[in-house]
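Much of our argument rests on the idea that a fold can be written as discrete symbols. This step matters because it turns folding into a mapping between discrete strings. The record that follows shows the chain in one-letter code together with its fold in token form.
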Amino acid sequence: MADNELLIKINADAKNAVKAFDDMREQTEDLESVLKKTALASGAGFAALTAEVGFAVHAFAEAQASSNALTQALQTQGIFTEKLAETYKGYAKEVEHATGIDDDAIVKSQAVAQSFLGQTQISKELTQAIADLSVGMGIDLDSAATLIGKTIGTQTNAFARYGLQIDDTATKNERLAKTLQFVQGRFQGQADAANEGLGGIQGLKS
């Protein structure tokens, strides 16, 4: 082979080798980029999954706590049955659907009210009244349940300064009727109204 031909071949081989190395480097860089993106995506996915699991566990704990509180309240008053507890929870679900208010929070407020009501059972109307009073007065559900429960189940008229008059000799059923009428007259529909428009989406979750 002539010297010139040998030199040409060596140069060609060298160029091919450089190109091969360049191609390999580009492929390596591309692979590295893909691996980095995959790692980031996997990390984000794992973080999202972890957050979702944490939320689910927290929600379950809240539901369990509310259910336990209701059971305890009903047992304390001597009226607990599984059927009655499920009826209360059904009322809470219906109010949640209409208002977007979390049903576990509503169940907890039912337990608060029951602690004042003795063996008088809570109706759907009374459950709704608790939600309406809460939204209308800008107070939490437990506080609303306490105001209503005290007015019905004790001699304390928590709404006296707002104009509700109840005779001291009134029976519990009479106090319940007057209290419910008063709250409905002042605040009926407040919780539903707060859930209208964009907030109405909350009510669909149940």
About this structure: Residues 3-76 form the longest helix (74 residues).
